[in-house]
Each structure stands twice: as structure tokens, then as C-alpha cells.
Amino acid sequence: MQPPTGFVVWLSSSKHSLVNKKRLSYTCVRQSLCFWLGHSVVPSLVYPSTWGNRKARVSCTVGSSSHQKEQQLYPHRLLKNYGGLGGKYDTRQYPAKSLCSHCGLCDTRFIHYVKDSCAFLNQHISELEYTVHGKSRALEIEDQLYFGVHLTMLAARRKQPLPGAQWSGIVTSIATRLLETGKVQGIVCVKNDETDRFKPKPILATTPEEIYASRVNKPTLSPNLSVLDTVEASGFTRIGVIGVGCQVEALRSVQSKLGLEKLYVLGTPCVDNVTRKGLDKFLRTTSSSPDTVVHYEFMQDFRVHFKHDDRVVGGSGKQWTETVPFFGLKTNQLKDIFAPSCLSCFDYVNSLADLVVGYMGAPFGWQWIVVRNNIGKEMLDLVSSQIETMPLSSSGNRFQAVQNSIPAYEKGMTLPMWIAQLLGVVIDKLGPKGLEYARFSIDSHFTRNYLYMKRKFPNILQRHVPEYARRIIEQYKLPQQ
Fold it and tell me: Where does the sequence pass through the membrane (predicted)?
């Protein structure tokens, strides 16, 4: 009988370990050991066993130098037919456990790199800033301390807002132009699931129609990176990705493994995402008509803006906006709805995207644009004829408002609605505006998240909180207990 010329590798989904599963000749064993030792994995000579449905079979021929070189460069490709960790968003199945933000990385073969890529296992924004932008933020410059590396910041809005857009439609417009101009072959974005308007469904969009169908922010945790296997299988070499901070940090960490010629990353600021169950609780606790809400946002006027459309409940198409002051939120009932990953995040401003489009930092009715590098400038230039712009401004003083908000949140204070409405009007007139409002929002969330980490995850606090966040937090007096 001829000795086998290849070997078969099996993946155990419970331990994420690769195990050799075939009788091998001495030569094959020796060559296999040399190959696998390069990946810190030693093959075991075992006989067939049942591993359940989540097993991936990979056949390869030992001795092919080009094949071995590819495996050394892209070891995740050995995990063929990898179907994720069970398909359910059970945080106990994921390496980051309760801190998992469900970015989608671990639902792909790129789980091979999760230890170094996950924002909650290996926070390394400063190092990645240098890789992506060519430099890390200068901590002595306030705008970089708060908003990260950037070439410029400005306010913008579409001259003619897109129908159905959450605000004016700048993100949708840029993604569409990237595709129409041939700069990319596909865009990773998120549409709504057909059965649930708030359930995210990541796709690799290849038509303007698919991009348009993905407009509007999704308020729940979204596995955007779950389509990375699809991206790799497509053979596309130029893609765009729309994502939030934790997704972008993981994406940047594996970018060199995607085999791309060009990657455009269009980011949005992100804070306080919730699970689908948590979203239901928030809507029913806060909105007067939770069943008709189509999207919402915490805005610069210190109010939550809910947009309603009664067509979601079979109505005639009536649309309206509802506002609720921040100070009227039932904090004592809502402190448990936010995802632990969001309560542990210190990348509100999406530091690693090429271009960031949000709202904080801009006047009400405008969008805040942060151009981080030349790729970001290239993207913004695509829609220069469709938008109007203006310089950013800054006024007011955030410090006392932030300091007062710390114990208020800790105690879960909730004001009667009439007082909350009155306070909202006063603060909207006299409180921080423009970039000072953006700093207020960052300070408020960083101090809250630091206290959460200190209580819940003290063992990883020191390595998880980046230096720029520490400097911001040190401006305030935090509770000792």
C-alpha cells in the first residue's frame, strides 16, 4: 500500500484547535510537524471520531511550496466550511465572553486571529492608528486627544436629503458613489432583516439599490464582519466597509489577510448599543408609541429624537417626530439595557476609520465630518457637489455638567417630565454646543465606562483603557467606592 501523500485536518468548534486525522507515513508526519509548528499547532495522530455538525474539513498536499506559502500567509483559509460558533449570539460561546460586541469576526474563519484582533481582548488603538494613518494621535493637542488623528473636521449636509435617510443621507451617498465610480466592487453594509425592522442583516452590497436599502443606523448589536468570508470568496480586491469602532478595530487587525488592493472604511460614531430585547425595553419605557418607531438618535439638543412611521403597523403612512429630554429618561429602569461591550468601549469616535460621519460636534440639523487621512478625503470628494459645508464651532463649558452627571447616573436619578422638559430648554440655550458638546458626550461616557470597568472587570482595567481615555477621565473626580 502506498503511503498517504496528504493529510486531513479537522476543526473542533469547542476548542478551536486543529487536529490531524489520518494515518500518515513518517515523511508526511515530519513535513506536517514542520508546517504546523510554524502556527504553534502540533498535529496529533488520531483516528476518526464524531465532532458534531460544526467541523471543517481541509485537504492539502504536503510538499507544495506555493501552497505552504499561502497557508503561512493566510492560515485562516485552512478553516474551510467554518460555520461560526453555532449561529446563535450566545456570548458564552465567544472568546470575549460577556464583553463580546458581536462584531461578526468570530462567525468567520478570521476567528483564527481573534486573540490579537478583538477590541475587548487586545485593545491596541494607538498602534493601529499609526498603521492606518501613518501616525498616532498627539495627546497634547486637545482636538486629537478627543477626536483622534484627522486632517480636517467640518459640518456638512446634503443639499437635497435622500428620502428615508436618517438625517440627510451622506453615508449612503458616499457608499453609492464609491460603487458607481468603480473605486470598489462591493460595500459591506447592514440592511434590516425582512422579518424585523430592528434586526441587522449584514450584506456585501454590489448595487446602489442594495446600499440604499441599508440606509439608517441600526440601534442593536450588529455582526457586520460576519460577511468577511463572503468578501474573500467573492474575489473582490477593492471594497468599502461601513462600521462602528469595535468592528473597525477588528477589521484593521485582519486587513492584511483579506488580500485586498484597496480598502475604504467609512465609520460612524457609536455608543450605547443594545440587544434586541434591550431595545424593546428602551422603546416601551421611553416612547409614547414604541411600535411605530423606525429609528432614533440622542441629539445635540439634549433630547432623544424618535422618528415614527405608522406603516410598520399597517397604517396609512403618517410620519412624525417625538422628542424626549435626556433628563426625563427613566435611568433607574434602563441602566441594564446597554451591552457590556458598549459600557467598556473607549472608541466613541471610530478612531480607525478613514472618514467618520456622525452628528455630535456639528450644529443641530448638520452632520459632523472627520476626515482622518487621504483615503477619507478621497471619499468625501466624491460627494462634494451634493453637499454644503460649514466650519465647526465650539461654545459653553462642559466640565460642571459632566461632573454633575456622574453621581446622577450612579444613583439612577429620574426627574419628573415637566422639570426635565424645562431643564432641557435651559441647557439647550446655555449648555455646551458644537465641539464642546462632543467633548461633553465623550467625557460623560468615558467616566461612566471607566467606573463600570473598575467594578465589573478590574483585572483588565489597566490594559484595556487607552492612554487618551485616561487623560480625559483624570479631569474629573470619580466616586471612590
Answer: none
pTM for the whole structure: 0.82
Q: Count Cα neighbours of 59 within 13 Å in the Cβ-side half-sphere.
A: 3
* 57-61 β-sheet, strand order: 17-20, 6-12, 57-61
Q: Which CATH class is domain 99-273+341-392?
A: alpha beta
Q: pLDDT averaged over the chain?
A: 83
Model confidence pLDDT, tens digit, residues 315-372: 888 889 999 988 888 888 887 888 999 999 999 999 999 999 999 899 988 999 999 9
Residues 6+ apart with CB under 8 A from 196: 276
